[in-house]
Amino acid sequence: MTRKELSAARRFAIAPMMDWTDRHCRFFHRLMTRRALVYTEMITTAAIIHGDRARLLGYDAAEHPVALQLGGSDPHALGQCARIGAALGYDEINLNVGCPSDRVQEGRFGACLMAEPALVGDCVAAMKAAVAVPVTVKCRIGIDEQDPESSLETFACAVEAAGVDALIVHARKAWLKGLSPRENREVPPLDYNRVFRLKAAHPRLAVVLNGGVASVEQAVALLDRVDGVMMGRAAYQEPWRLLAVDPLMFGEAAPFAQAKAVVAALVPYVERELARGTRLSSITRHMLGLFRGVPGARAFRRHLATEAVKPGAGVQVLVDALAQLLDTDADLAHIAA
Fold first, then answer.
1. Is 99 known to be catalytic?
2. Which one is catalytic: 99, 112, 123, 139?
3. Contact, 280 vs 314, CB < 8 A?
4. In which element (H, E) is residue 129 found?
5. Domain extent at residue 299
6. Of the residues 197, 221, 250, which one is the last residue of a structural domain?
7. CB-based burial of residue 116 (10 Å sphere; 0-12 exposed, 13-18 middle, 19+ buried)?
8. Domain count, the chain
9. What is the maximum alpha-carbon separation in the chain?
């Protein structure tokens, strides 16, 4: 994929989310949008250097364009892992400077790096020197008592000077003490205007806005002020929304017009993964919100939640779950949230 093509894909991205955006989730999401940029979960440099790379970094070719998100703060290790990711064919390497969890803080990476912009700049420079693919950073507008006006400006200047290809900004502060990671996704108020001001002050820097994006229609409207939009929980919890991405964001037809066709297209992948020893629930857990608003959706979710976890569960469980729906031909792109 060329840099121009990847830049276009960055108009709409699905956020990297721990325990959510694994390879099964990404394959499922790709069936609803050919064009969106998808991300791995954050993977630490230590895990990549010392762990099972095939398990951690494996992905299906259908996932492209796909970005690898790294967690770490050592420039040398990040450069090494970026090189590994690029060699495996990842289209972009992203550095996480937004996760506020205690475990991440203890490892000196994630959101706590907002306090060390010079170090992040060194990390970006090392990654840029190691790979030819784009290197991006995902950050917050600030942490704890930082003033977002000065902290985000200083941070942006550091990574822009290091050659970062895009800055993805979750438009909330992260409170490293006193709030859980879940609360950090909801409690600190959104400040889109701070991100808009950042883009205005750095016109040559590609700025992608993340945080609180609830619909593709909202994402389209935000493109007047930023270069791209990243959707997180709404894309995961209500995946049917992704059917609107290609038509509204890229002017192209969706891969499938209806969610029922998406499930049918997923079946060969499910069969292939089951043959490899994957548990059915590892795949179907990402599908629970696909039919929200359709009569029988609750029964669909209940059947998958109870039956897909059982040893030996196969494709028939998915077929039986679909049978719980009273209107599987519903065009979910037109169902109100």
1. yes
2. 99
3. yes
4. helix 117-130
5. 259-334
6. 250
7. middle
8. 2
9. 57
